[in-house]
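Justification of resources, computational component.

The compute hours requested in this renewal are based largely on the per-chain cost of generating structure records like the one below. Each record pairs the submitted sequence with a full structure-token output. That output is archived, and it is also reused by downstream analysis tasks.
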Amino acid sequence: MNPGLHARHLINLFPIISILGIVCVASFNRFLKYRSFEDYLKDSFFRQAFILLFLVGLVFLGYQSFRHHQRVSPRSQLYPLIGEWLQKNTTIDSVIMSDPTPSIHYYARRPVIMFPRPATPDELEEILEKYQVQYLVVFYQDQLKSLPDEGLTTVAKFSSFFQGKEQIGLILKRTGDLNG
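The structure output for this chain reads:
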């Protein structure tokens, strides 16, 4: 299974599978009412043709949804790696700044605040002080540009290749006095 495909992405298939099951059970119950299979086919040809087309359409839509969720960004493959690193190398109360917030929070199990965009280095420094952020997870070039010139050290670097695309994720640690 694709490493970026989570069980939550398969929820889109549930209605299609449910409808398929209901239609199959209803068709079987209807079939039991007839004396022979030929009588069943004569009486319900158009109904069956419509149901068949409807089901093929539903299966096609479900398959397209499933395929869409298999195409994941290289960045999303880094979330579990970065989260695991943060879990092992930070304390439970370490505050992390990241974008995307929910994914990093899910894997790291640490408090995460959103990386402000766009932000000047002074604005970012003010936010870092206000929330006592110890670690920053950086994926985007514009985030690197808005970082303060001093007080940050790269402690981990992750890269991912998927379908010819490379994504780099950095974990930066604030150094110096964090108490303001």
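The helical segments are 14-32, 37-70, 78-89, 101-108, 121-130, 141-145. The first helix runs from residue 14 to 32.
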